[in-house]
Design a protein that fits this description.
Two copies of one chain form a homodimer. Chain A has helices at residues 61-72, 97-112, 119-134, 142-147, 183-188, 196-215, 218-223, 231-234, 241-250, 272-287; strands spanning 3-13, 22-38, 42-49, 80-86, 150-156, 159-164, 170-177, 193-195, 255-258, 265-270, 293-299, 306-307. Chain A is an alpha+beta fold. At the A-B interface, strand 5, strand 6, strand 8 and helix 6 of A face strand 5, strand 6, strand 8 and helix 6 of B.
Chain lengths: 308, 308
């Protein structure tokens, strides 16, 4: 195989109660990438459409992730790789734009090398790409992009990611207000400490959410989607947040929250009909906010990155 | 049925990462209780052996729990109940002494009334007994005593408890140093706030522990048993804590922690042989501490309270 074309999905990190730990994978929102073997050694980014991102390998998350992988590849190869990135996920949207690029690069190169690395290793390499934009090799978006479904980053020393089961009929409606919130900014506003009482509620909800995924309990899943610690700060950066959440609640959503560091707002629904109905309601409500927006409906993607 | 004799088990609350949320049920450590219909209306505590506890119904956790149940029973009855309590679990041991009494009382009376109440309702009544000694109707010990296995208190408003699955071969070795730590004291030393970074690790571990129980993954279960928030404070009240934990680690335990508010220290093991071997090692080590102690080995009890 000389070339691979992939769909690299968007992802929802945090999932309300699981700040910096939980994530899940989307199905209809994502970038396309082509990764190709070339005579020239090393890694080149040869094409980027859809956004104004750096072509220099060391300055591009896909490039950095690819280099992290090749550094650990212990066979000498007399060829290199070029990467084309067709971006659909806007950087700063909160649905894992950089993660899609980083995860796609390592997934593609691993395939072209005949899969020498495990999924856990690919997550580690992709997280090195994330480090370029997050100052930390955060894995809560790259993990669900690579593994699919819901994931839990158990810890970083060493990196350990768990793949959780997911219900067949779980959909997300995602509103992306076209304002940019940088992860670094939305991290800087967070307090260093949390009330112990809130933290207890938060980890009870994380435990309940994991149990809900295992037992396919939609109601329990929905009732676990609370964030007492991070959302009160970050939601202030998102115009109309409370109204979108209320609209979702009033229209049968299981629960809502901030996707990653925002500004995107996710709402989970049981079934595509509910999710599409909610999309139409939120569209109407958000038009009043006078902020351009995109809105998506996506099944939760169990597979992660796909060959196309 | 006029009379019921039960075994009401000890319990491990918190289970390291799940402060005020997780709990599990023991099998060989517990009280015995007899609950009997009598002509005299109301609830009387007629016998207590093994400890010096109040006989006045309103001052005894079993009595208060029983009254909470009867208050919600909507049929008029022309009889009452008497309760005999044969305590084996020392109050202030950290293995759910008051919870065993409260849970046993409501379990027994519910049986004698032909089971009008659900398990969730019984947990609520029993938690009212706990309120007498904890200033809060805490459910993390009464829930596993009533449901068996591992439980997660998802929240209190309304009370919602989840029963988690548990591996067949999971045992606990429990050291009870004979010093008394009052729950109120061990709660008073806790900080009101936790570092957000520690809280993230804690909820990642709670999520991982729930996943481990569902997937019967002993190693993941063990690696989730960390408490960065409460244990650093409470362990200082327990002489020899670090040495017991190290002994457990060196002898193949899956993990260790403080049972409830202490001073008991639990270590989980895979299989009874491992648990008994560890008991003998800890015995040797703790003899040097010059503090009287009990040490137990117990399977994790999947059923909770049992008829005897």
């Amino acid at each position: 195989m000389k070339e691979i074309k992939i769909f690299s999905p968007g992802t929802i990190a945090n999932v309300s109660c699981g700040f910096d730990a939980l994530g899940c994978c989307l199905d209809t929102i994502g970038d396309e990438m082509i990764i190709r073997k070339t005579d020239k050694k090393g890694v080149q980014i040869t094409k980027i459409t859809g956004d104004d991102l750096p072509f220099e390998t060391h300055k591009n998350v896909a490039g950095v992730a690819a280099l992290a992988l090749l550094e650990k590849y212990n066979k000498s190869i007399d060829y290199g790789f070029e990467i084309e990135i067709y971006k659909n996920i806007k950087p700063g949207s909160g649905i894992g734009s950089s993660a899609a690029s980083a995860a796609g690069a390592v997934f593609g190169i691993n395939k072209l090398l005949n899969e020498p690395f495990t999924a856990q290793e690919l997550i580690l390499f992709a997280s090195k790409g994330e480090e370029l934009v997050s100052d930390f090799p955060i894995a809560d978006n790259v993990a669900p992009a690579l593994l699919g479904g819901f994931t839990l980053v158990k810890g970083y020393d060493p990196l350990k990611v768990l793949k959780l089961p997911v219900m067949d009929d779980l959909y997300a409606t995602i509103l992306h207000p076209q304002i940019e919130i940088k992860t670094s900014e939305s991290r800087a506003i967070l307090p260093e400490k949390a009330n112990l009482k809130d933290a207890v509620k938060q980890w009870a909800n994380v435990g309940a959410l994991v149990h809900a995924l295992h037992t396919e309990d939609y109601d329990l899943f929905g009732s676990s989607l609370h964030d007492l610690i991070v959302e009160p700060y970050r939601s202030q950066l998102i115009p109309g947040f409370d109204q979108v959440v209320k609209t979702a609640k009033d229209n049968g959503a299981l629960g809502s929250g901030i996707s990653g560091s925002g500004p995107s707002i996710f709402s989970f629904c049981k079934g595509i009909q509910q999710a599409e109905k909610l999309r139409d309601k939120i569209k109407k409500v958000y038009k009043k906010a006078d902020i351009p927006f995109h809105i998506y409906v996506s099944k939760i993607n169990k597979k992660g990155i796909k060959l196309i």
